[in-house]
Amino acid sequence: VHVDGMDVLKVREVAKEAIARERRGDGPTLVAFETYRFRGHSLADPDELRDPAEKAHYAERDPIVALKKAT
């Protein structure tokens, strides 16, 4: 199952379904969460290679901010 990892409520929904499936004895579920890394790989990574427009696009989809707006 592919999930928009930027959508916290959708992640919760899919996780609940996967857990219920396992508990029913229907086997495991492979869940792929597609998300965005907001920072470099480490504190030593200056993160200069990504386009600022790309960073801005994903900053607008920040899952924490979106969840606060939804609740």
Provide an overview of this structure.
This protein is mainly alpha-helical and 71 residues long. It has one domain. Helices cover 45% and strands 8% of the residues. It contains three helices and two strands, in the order βαβαα. A two-stranded parallel ribbon has the order 1-2. Strand 1, helix 1 and strand 2 (32-34) form a beta-alpha-beta unit. The longest helix has 16 residues, at 8-23. The two termini are 25 Å apart. The model has no long low-confidence stretch (mean pLDDT 93). Its cofactor is thiamine diphosphate. GO terms for molecular function: pyruvate dehydrogenase (acetyl-transferring) activity. Residues 1-69 form the Dehydrogenase E1 component domain. InterPro entries: DH_E1, PDH_E1_Alpha_Subunit, THDP-binding. Pfam families: E1_dh.
Helix content: 40-55%
- Low-pLDDT runs of 5+ residues are none
Beta-strand percentage range: 5-15%
Strand order of the largest sheet: 1-2
Number of helices: 3
Mean pLDDT across all amino acids: 93
Categorize the overall geometry: elongated
- Summarize the biggest pleated sheet: 2 strands, parallel
SS-based class: mainly alpha
Task: Report the order of strands and helices.
Answer: EHEHH
Rg over C-alpha atoms, rounded to the nearest angstrom: 16 Å
Protein name: Dehydrogenase E1 component domain-containing protein
Domain Dehydrogenase E1 component: 1-69
Cofactor: thiamine diphosphate
Keywords: Oxidoreductase, Thiamine pyrophosphate
